[in-house]
Write a structure and sequence with these properties.
With 233 residues, the protein is α+β, with helices and mostly antiparallel strands. It is built from 7 helices and 10 strands. Helix 5 packs antiparallel against helix 7 (198-213). It binds coenzyme A (COA). Coenzyme A binds next to helix 2, strand 6, helix 5, strand 7 and helix 6.
Amino acid sequence: MRTFNPFGINYPLSIINYPLVSMAKITIQKMSPKDISSVVELDRLCFGGLWNAQGYQRELESPNSDLLILLISQNTEDRKEKVVFQSSNCESQLTYNQSIIGVCCLWAILEEAHITILGIHPQYQRLGFGQLLLYTLMRSAWERGLERATLEVAASNISALSLYYKFGFQDVGRRRGYYQKTGEDALILWHSHLHQQEFEQTLSEWHRQVVGRINDYEVSWEGLKVENQHSYS
Ligand SMILES: CC(C)(COP(=O)(O)OP(=O)(O)OC[C@H]1O[C@@H](n2cnc3c(N)ncnc32)[C@H](O)[C@@H]1OP(=O)(O)O)[C@@H](O)C(=O)NCCC(=O)NCCS
C-alpha cells in the first residue's frame, strides 16, 4: 500500500512513516442498472461499440450471466480540502473519485462458461487489471460448477490472446470471417477441467499472481464470494 504526506508538511519521522491513506482502491462487483451508461461508453472505447444499453440490460436480467465491473477509486486532486483527520493518531478519510475502468461477462450454458466480453479502459491497460477480471470470471465459473470456459477472439488480437494463453486457454478452432465489420477470423479458445479438484489450487495460484501484480492498490470484491480468497494472499 502506498503512503503519502497529504499536506506536504514536515511531520516528525514517526508520523511520516505511518500509512496514512492508500492512493487508490480497486473494487470488482456486479454491474447494476445505474452503471449502464458508463459501461456503454467504456464498451465503445474498448470494443468500438459491441453491446448497447439494451444488450447490457438483457445481461443484467439473465440469471445465467455474470456481468462484472471493475472500479478504480482515486483520491481527489485537492487533498487539502478533502482530507479530514479524525483524531490525533493520524487516521484520515479521503473523498474518492470512482470510475468504471473494466467490464466482463460470462454466460453459463449447460456446463460451459462463455466469456462474452472482457475489456479494460485503454488508459488503464497493461497494469494487471485484465487478468484480475479474467481470474474473477474463472472463479465465478468454478463457483457455478461449470466444467469448461470458452470464448472467441479476433486472430489479430495479440493482447487478448496473450492474456488467455497465460491463463491456460488453448486454441481449438477457427471461425472464418467471423467478424462482420472486418471479415476477420476468430480463434476459438477453451479452458477445460474447471470441475476437477486441482482447479481450486490453480485458482489460488492465480489469485496470488493477480493480486501480487497490483499490490500498490487495495483490492476488494464487493458482494462476490471471491472476497474469501484474501486468505490465500
Ligand atoms: C485484452 C485486455 C482485456 C487485456 O487487459 P490488460 O489489463 O491490458 O492486461 P493485463 O495488464 O492484465 O495483462 C495480463 C497479461 O495479458 C497479456 N497482455 C496484455 N496486454 C498485452 C499486450 N499489449 N501485448 C502482449 N501481451 C499482453 C500479457 O500476457 C500480460 O501478462 P504480463 O503483464 O505478465 O506480460 C485489454 O487489452 C483490452 O481491454 N483490450 C480491448 C478489448 C479486447 O480486445 N478484449 C478482449 C476481447 S475477447
